[in-house]
């Protein structure tokens, strides 16, 4: 069923595994990720950036495609449709009214007081609709969907205050992670993560899940990380498959013949992550 992230993440937190958020770009991504979740008996979060939402024709189209695909595939595992890096209250409100079951309000780029103010507004509307809310503190490095940032660590006291004053369901404290591939090994602030986990009282979210070694994934989960976002890894694997198939078949023009195999590549990648995150057989 379509559900919010609230129960999913509280359960994951209590049982010490993480639910993957996999970003979607089109119907093939939806099909591949939902099939992976069902095969693995895993809860799953479909991440939709504002740009990807626009690309697919709007939030309403996204919800309709996900609902129809779940019905066609006979999906029984818990699925959340989550707005990824929502930039404004208006964007979150649009997603909520279109039927998203979860939203992220990313107001980490302004002042702390502005973050508290807009996040509170989003929580009020979202919770009225049974929709969960993720907020962010500090900044994730790298670029996603044209949004570029330098790494800035979240402050532990601010994390506690943001949770207490807004009532968010989960928190993404930026602690050295990066959107897109890492240059060298990632250097995550585990000491800070442990501190924040002790005071925040909500499940933590790790952005920039592509390229983080398994050992660090396990450590993050042990410090209360219950949601891990993966986008770039699926794009790399999918696009590589399209390139390979087209290179081997220069005459090919039927999109199903190259998008089909690339859909399988997404599914395999997602299954690998679900096993690594420990969410397989938890639904
Ligand atoms: O919000 C989405 C993510 O944080 C994805 O990061 O593209 O590095 O996997 P990634
Ligand atoms: Zn992110």
TrEMBL record:
Q: Which cofactor does it need?
A: Zn(2+)
Which biological process annotations from GO are given for this protein?
fructose 1,6-bisphosphate metabolic process; glycolytic process
The note on cofactor binding and number reads: Binds 2 Zn(2+) ions per subunit. One is catalytic and the other provides a structural contribution.
Name recorded for this polypeptide: Fructose-bisphosphate aldolase
Q: What are the GO MF terms of this UniProt record?
A: fructose-bisphosphate aldolase activity; zinc ion binding
Against SUPFAM superfamilies, the record matches this protein to: Aldolase (SSF51569)
Which species?
A: Paraliobacillus quinghaiensis
Asked whether the keyword Zinc is assigned, the reply is yes
Q: Where does Zn(2+) 2 bind?
A: 106, 136
């Amino acid at each position: 069923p379509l559900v919010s992230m609230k129960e999913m993440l509280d359960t994951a937190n209590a049982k010490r595994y993480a639910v993957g958020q996999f970003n979607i770009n089109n119907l093939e991504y939806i099909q591949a990720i939902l099939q992976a979740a069902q095969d693995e008996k895993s809860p799953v979060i479909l991440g939709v950036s504002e740009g990807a939402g626009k690309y697919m024709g709007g939030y309403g189209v996204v919800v309709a495609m996900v609902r129809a695909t779940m019905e066609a595939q006979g999906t029984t595992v818990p699925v959340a449709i989550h707005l990824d890096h929502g930039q404004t209250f208006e964007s979150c409100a649009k997603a909520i009214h279109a039927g998203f079951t979860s939203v992220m309000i990313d107001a980490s780029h302004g002042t702390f007081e502005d973050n508290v103010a807009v996040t509170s507004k989003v929580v009020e509307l979202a919770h009225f609709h049974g929709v969960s809310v993720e907020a962010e503190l500090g900044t994730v490095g790298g670029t996603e969907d044209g949004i570029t940032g330098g790494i800035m660590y979240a402050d532990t006291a601010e994390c506690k205050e943001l949770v207490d004053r807004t009532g968010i369901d989960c928190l993404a404290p930026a602690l050295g992670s990066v959107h897109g591939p890492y240059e060298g090994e990632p250097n995550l602030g585990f000491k800070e993560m442990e501190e924040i986990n002790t005071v925040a009282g909500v499940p933590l979210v790790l952005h920039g899940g592509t390229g983080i070694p398994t050992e660090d994934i396990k450590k993050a989960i042990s410090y209360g990380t219950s949601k891990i976002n993966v986008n770039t890894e699926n794009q790399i694997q999918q696009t590589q498959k399209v390139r390979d198939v087209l290179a081997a078949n220069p005459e090919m023009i039927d999109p199903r013949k190259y998008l089909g195999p690339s859909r399988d590549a997404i599914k395999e990648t997602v299954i690998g992550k679900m096993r690594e995150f420990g969410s397989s057989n938890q639904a």
